[in-house]
Design a protein that fits this description.
The complex is a heterodimer of chains A (423) and B (90).
Chain A lengths: L5 E2 L1 E6 L3 H9 L8 E4 L7 E4 L1 H5 L8 H7 L4 E3 L3 H16 L5 E3 L4 E5 L4 H4 L2 H21 L13 E6 L1 H10 L5 E3 L5 H6 L10 H9 L5 H5 L3 H19 L7 E2 L7 E11 L2 H16 L7 E12 L3 E13 L2 H14 L6 E13 L11 H24 L5 E5 L7 H4 E5 L3
Parallel strand pairs in A: 3-5, 8-9
Antiparallel strand pairs in A: 1-10, 2-7, 2-8, 3-4, 6-7, 11-14, 12-13, 12-14, 15-16
Chain B lengths: L13 E3 L4 E2 L2 E3 L5 E4 L2 E14 L6 E10 L4 E7 L5 E4 L2
Antiparallel strand pairs in B: 2-8, 3-4, 4-5, 5-6, 6-7, 7-8
The chains are: A alpha+beta (423), B mainly beta (90).
Chain lengths: 423, 90
């Protein structure tokens, strides 16, 4: 398997509220009103809220009735995750034109590796200018490509450049819309020291504890002894301290983007019944697994897309911890998703994409291309067989695994529990 | 730790982990643990109090993280409502 390219110098491109910005861009007049986007599940709660709506007290996670109660003029948008995903994919493709090392974060957040680019473009400032120009042409290009964009989402992007992803991200998060902050090499510690602790990847409890201890900036945190922070906050505290002190330089890791294997089914009449969708899913999986490019490879990631009546869409991304070429195991998490968060309407077209692969097949270890993957699969099968044998002999399960129940609980006995290991 | 099985998760299959065990604790004049069973407390590392779930059945506990003679580290707590002491893994 080819090694993934990395880069320690990073540029961070961030478009906050990316899905909401996409909606504002394709619907005229939306940007001038308080707007909220509904969550892409059945909860009917708010997912993203525009700054105008936020001013009226509307917050993500509220129910529609709560939000309308606070802001009667609020405009609600149904989510269209496939559209956001396509827009983000086109952004990544545009950034790939500048650097081969592009890593995606959440929707609207991308990192570019810029190691070696100074030979082509010059100083970091010039590299940032090139990224700005690319962003501009990306936005114009998609508008010209027939996308009915009424308003540019370009001005809402922020850019940061620095050594390591964290410095670049902090720089982008502090930049004004449409502008960039460049952290000069060697100046990371000075730059980070004045930033608030909120830029760290903190859980609310740790954030509250830091506030109570009077630690408000990364500089204040980095001034403490590393051991003291570790003693107080554990391994996560050590990681936070190292980030704050500028000791952690997390490189940008490029992606190997193989061409996905796609199988699609268009229904004559829109389908709402889950049974029919599941049957269609089984057909799509079988068809995709038969594809010649799949032979000898196990599937690591799948994506199921549904085009829904009324121009809406639904999306489910599944990443397998244990890659597989078994149709039933590929179908299981997708069926669960269809059951727990089904498409919010009748489906016109269902598309299955196998998007990432791992060499080797667990079924044919002798001929597996990747001995490590095959060995892992073999170990798992041996474990499952041993567990079954123990269960048959003593008529009860003696193997357990630890699961998180309420990891945030202040009562230690509520945090974790044991559950029978049943292969 | 093994990978999670694919069996459906059912609440009745869960077993509690780190359940508090009742212990006999003697305290000094400042209400800090002095002995746990027959073992003397060497150091009290940290003490804190939890008041939780006041909206249903209130839980009020005074916790002490201690090191016993011999080097074993345990977390003790007193259930303030009943005055009973329990030990837990740290």
């Amino acid at each position: 398997m080819p090694q993934r390219p990395t880069s320690s110098l990073a540029a961070c491109v961030w478009i906050p509220l990316f899905p909401l910005r996409c909606e504002e861009a394709r619907r005229e007049g939306l940007a001038t009103h308080p707007t909220a986007l509904l969550a892409p599940d059945l909860s009917r709660k708010l997912w993203q809220v525009s700054p105008l709506a936020r001013h009226t007290g509307v917050r993500p996670g509220m129910t529609v009735s709560q939000a309308i109660g606070l802001c009667p003029t609020l405009r609600l948008c149904e989510p269209d995750p496939v559209h956001y995903d396509e827009r983000f994919a086109s952004l990544l493709a545009a950034l790939n034109e500048i650097s081969p090392v592009v890593e995606s974060g959440e929707l609207g957040l991308a990192y570019l590796g810029t190691d070696g680019l100074e030979g082509i473009y010059g100083t970091p400032g010039r590299i940032v200018e090139v990224i700005k120009r690319t962003m501009e042409s990306w936005n114009v290009g998609t508008s010209e490509a027939g996308c009915p964009f009424q308003r540019s989402i370009f001005p809402s992007f922020r850019l940061g450049w620095g050594k390591g992803k964290f410095a670049a991200w902090v720089a982008a998060s502090r930049a004004k819309p449409g502008e960039a902050i460049v952290v000069p090499p060697g100046g990371e510690r000075k730059f980070l020291s004045v930033q608030p602790v909120a830029v760290l990847p903190l859980d609310p409890d740790t954030h509250r504890r830091l506030r109570q201890l009077g630690i408000r900036t990364l500089g204040a945190l980095a001034a403490l002894p590393e051991e003291a922070v570790t003693a107080q906050f554990g391994a996560a505290g050590r990681q936070l301290w190292r980030l704050a002190a500028g000791h952690t330089v997390e490189p940008v890791v490029g992606r190997n983007a193989p061409e996905p294997i796609v199988a699609a089914l268009t229904f004559f009449t829109p389908v709402g019944e889950r049974d029919l969708l599941e049957r269609a899913l089984d057909q799509l999986i079988a068809r995709a697994l038969k594809h010649p490019r799949r032979i000898g490879w196990r599937v690591q990631a799948v994506r199921l897309r549904a085009e829904i009546e009324g121009g809406r869409s639904w999306l489910a991304d599944i990443l397998f911890k244990d890659p597989t070429a078994d149709a039933a195991r590929i179908a299981a998490p997708l069926r669960t998703r269809l059951e727990q968060a089904p498409p919010p309407g009748a489906v016109e077209r269902l598309v299955l994409e196998l998007t990432a692969f791992t060499p080797g097949t667990a079924e044919l270890q002798l001929f597996a291309r990747d001995a490590v993957a095959a060995a892992r699969a073999g170990q798992r099968r041996a474990l499952e067989s041993a567990a079954r044998e123990i269960q048959q002999r003593i008529k009860r399960s003696c193997l357990y695994h630890v699961i998180e129940v309420q990891p945030w609980s202040r009562l230690p006995e509520r945090r974790y529990a044991l559950i029978d290991f049943e292969p | 730790m093994v990978a999670p099985s694919r069996a459906p998760l059912r609440v009745d299959r869960l077993r509690a982990l780190n359940v508090p065990q009742p212990v006999a604790v003697e305290c000094d004049v400042e209400d800090r643990p002095q002995t746990v069973g027959d073992v003397t407390v060497a150091t009290v590392l940290e003490s804190w109090r939890i008041d939780d779930e006041w909206w249903r059945q209130s839980i009020t506990r005074c916790y002490h993280e201690v090191i016993l003679d011999g080097g074993r580290r345990v977390v003790l707590f007193e259930d303030v409502a009943t005055g009973e002491w329990f030990a837990q893994m740290p």
